[in-house]
Amino acid sequence: MRSDPLGYLATELESLTREGLNRRLRVLDGEQGAEASVDGRCVINLSSNNYLGLTTHPRLRARAIDAIERYGVGSGSVRTIAGTMALHMELEHRLAEFKRTEAVVVFQSGVTANAGTVASILTKDDVVVSDELNHASIIDGCRLSRATTRIFPHKDVDAARRVLRELPAGQRTLLITDGVFSMDGDLGPLPALCDLAEEFGCIMMVDDAHASGVFGRNGRGTVDHFDMHGRVDVQVGTLSKAMGALGGYVAGNGALIEFLHHRARPFLFSTSHPPSVAATCLAALDVLMEEPDLIARLWDNTGFFKAGLAALGFDTGLSESPITPVIVGDAALAMTLSDRLFAQGVFAQGIGFPTVPRGKARVRTIVTATHTRDQLQRALDAFAEVGRELGVIPAHVAPL
Ligand SMILES: *Cc1c(COP(=O)(O)O)cnc(C)c1O
After folding, report:
1. pTM here?
2. Which top CATH class is 57-290?
3. CA of 181, closest atom in ligand 1
4. Residue ranges of the domains in the chain?
5. Pocket lined around ligand 1, Cβ cut-off 6 Å
């Protein structure tokens, strides 16, 4: 009998198991929500990116259903052939207005927006200067572009400056940061990086996936939050997190967007969104403009939960956003903490290498606008109990 040419994969999986990193997929039996049925258990959900609860918002549901009834369930083509529907164009116009840029192009996801954009605007003769914790899709875009990639330590603007100083004059350079870092919840140093980009003539790009719908007026993102309008050449946002649906977009000037229409490979070679997705996102924009209370509630809950975790003595890193990591270091410990929390009815995913560096394993929590105080307090109680049992926090600190 032929030996299995994929046998090495089983060996790799065994080594993941030994490191405590082999994860089963958790399965939602119903809606994504503040409380959810996961693997048959009702749990307080601290793992989704559904910041504003829009995945189940009645206005979004209604627009999606209406679009399906009017236009069907698929677009039938890539954007550049027959798959551009009026709803796609309407969404891009609305997003451009929202982001206060000349134009916007929507991609199938934030991942394809990042990778497709970086790969198409740079060539092997160019340079990318990138924060070490930037999202995987930025890293993939850098690789696909074949540009030289120079990494600077997380948020270290002086180190980025040293890298830029060493480059030959006139070298085309992209300076790129996440707006909000997805595993730590801290903000990229956007104002200082914009200064640097201007000083060295770089293209400035920010990936605002976790800032879309969360930071800035009505959730316009970190460019609005820091008042950097006009100083960031390429803004990526996602429609998959706070916006509740699916997709990514690039906001910038007209030439950038037109160029991406011609060169961004996911735009050219992958089918566009179903009309219901575009309609859902239009409804999400309406909600951002008309129900600002949702964002206020998100921030209220964020403050309450962060303060609670810190008071219990957990290491919550440097987060400035609704993402709060509970850093424990060892991957197996992070997974055990997550499993024990789950047994107590709290779903907070354990995260280890390669998603975060070795030795920085954590349980990541994300609160949403739709969590009640009671749910968040119960989650804090579970963290206190399990954290003490596992020796992650000292036993003597009194709970809030
Ligand atoms: C989630 C995320 C993306 C990807 O967005 P999707 O729309 O889910 O593909 C890109 N960048 C960052 C920083 C993210 O956290």
Report:
1. 0.95
2. alpha beta
3. 13
4. 25-55+292-390, 57-290
5. 109-111, 114, 135, 137, 178, 182, 207, 209-210, 238, 240, 248
